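G.,

No rush on this.
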Amino acid sequence: MAEYALGTLEDDADIVRARSLAESDETNAAQLASMHTALADLAFALDPVAPSADTRARLLSSAKGGRFAQFAEKFAEMFDVTVSRAKELLDWVDDPSKWEAGPGEGTALIHFPGGAACAGADCGFVRVEPGVQFPWHEHTGEETNLVLQGRCIDADGSEQNRGAFFVNRTDSRHDFRNPDDAVDYIFAVRVFGVDFDVVKPAG
């Protein structure tokens, strides 16, 4: 009953069983009511703590359907998935367990399968930490990008910001840098070939 009152039961069968016990037995019902009262009193007894800016932003965005919900339709079109699936995948960005090491220090990747129209493409997310430069590389196939957070400055001096949707053509070469000092640069990418073994021209 304590776990039921706290909302920490994870198994559906346990939740149903606890609810049934509380509804069918007066002693259990009284115990549950007492626990709820104690939890409410505890909450009011604690000193209030203002949430961090990040926590507040995540809470508000969650109430609106996800931190990147505004990109769901464009993302769904880009990766040939449903809008519902797009929202699920966009939520992966905030799951640390989904990320793996990227091609350079301070970079990370998430891979996921796209729809039929993305056959042969590598689909995923790329994260570049503040102040980090993403390694020089060549696009051996067309690459499509959607910026979800932050900004980058490309080798040619151009800048891409949150919401930017752009294509890097086949045979193009470049690197780019996250110029910010506190915000990760994160973008969704669909690429049909990339080579990190090319040598960056001197100068």
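When you get to it, here's the other one too:
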Amino acid sequence: MPHKEAVSGLRQALQAMTEETDGARHPELLRELSREHPNTIKILESLHPLHRFTCFVHAFGFIERPQYVSIAQIGFNYVYAGPEFAHWLFDQGHLTEVTESDLVLNDLAFYTSTDGRFRHAAIFLGSDRFQSKWGLGYLFEHRLFEVPDSYGNSARFFRGLSYAQAIRSFVCYAESKGMRFRKRSLSEDSQ
């Protein structure tokens, strides 16, 4: 296990990397910072345009899913799968919290700030490996705290949701924000 200061230095360097607005430079910046801050981070290929999804959209399996996209486009910057949706899921009892030692494949890690608010989401891949989308940048595979500093210094863990569970919950969340849907449109993407 790396020394706490080494992890802190890595996380600060990763923060600076993700603040680079030209995401195409992130691979080069990761190679450079890895010389000074050894890590196990891997950049992953994405089947979808990186600018079209966030860490929470990725964690809930909503990337390019027609039903999610149609709701999020209507409620852009108001109703989308972000930290507020994750807190709503928790508050409504739709998430089952687990310990880190009880994680199973596809469970979720929500990184928290000092005030306990969710800041970032990752999917558990097994063997202390997680997958998450970083800001405007790439999809990464990493250890739990091989992430940018701004994502928080602690994490909470939850059972992963199936797509059907997640989208049903997202529709309820959108309705709680005042959106209304025809019943037929809700079932079109639930497979």
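Residues 41-187 form a domain with the endopeptidase fold (from Nostoc punctiforme) fold (CATH 3.90.1720). The longest strand covers residues 118-126.

Enjoy the weekend,
O.
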